[in-house]
Amino acid sequence: MNREKKRSGSAASAEESALRSLAMRDHSQEEVRRKLQAKGFGAEEIERVLKNLVSRGILDDFRYASRLALSLTSEKLLGPQRIRQKLFQRGIPANLAKEAIEKAEETLAVGERLQQVLRTKLKGRSLGQVLPREKRRLINYLRQRGFLWEDIAEAFEGAGGLKEE
Fold first, then answer.
1. Which CATH architecture has domain 61-107?
2. Distance (Å, whole) CA 158 – CA 100
3. pLDDT tens digits, 5-61
4. What is the pTM of this model?
5. What is the SS3 assignment for 165?
6. For the chain, which residues make up each domain, given as ranges?
């Protein structure tokens, strides 16, 4: 019966549903839109709710993108490409994603994150002690984490070189 009430299109129930989702954690406008669509609310109703939540400051894509980018930067130690991908998956527009990533970079730069990941993966060894095959695997691992080749090459040169023995 509760499900039927939601499908009838009550704006109040759409807003209640959105607020319940936002009470658990921040979401982007696109995420809230998808959640409300999945629950059967109409497009006009969803847009009205989103507009209301944005005007009240409850829903803010830049705030959400900034927090997520900072978390992915400082806790997960991801590279800029992977962070951009994660933000895109959550419906953050490209211009906001770029700003959020730049803001997060101020806290912990790409080079510093790369050095932290390298220290963790090398477990006290220097790059000179690592076999070429392991270096290739490490490079692939860093690329999968979203680091650019230029940044990886610079980090490797700073930590003992990229040359293949």
1. Orthogonal Bundle (1.10)
2. 28
3. 444 456 678 899 999 999 999 999 999 999 999 999 999 999 999 999 999 999 999
4. 0.83
5. coil
6. 2-55, 61-107, 110-158
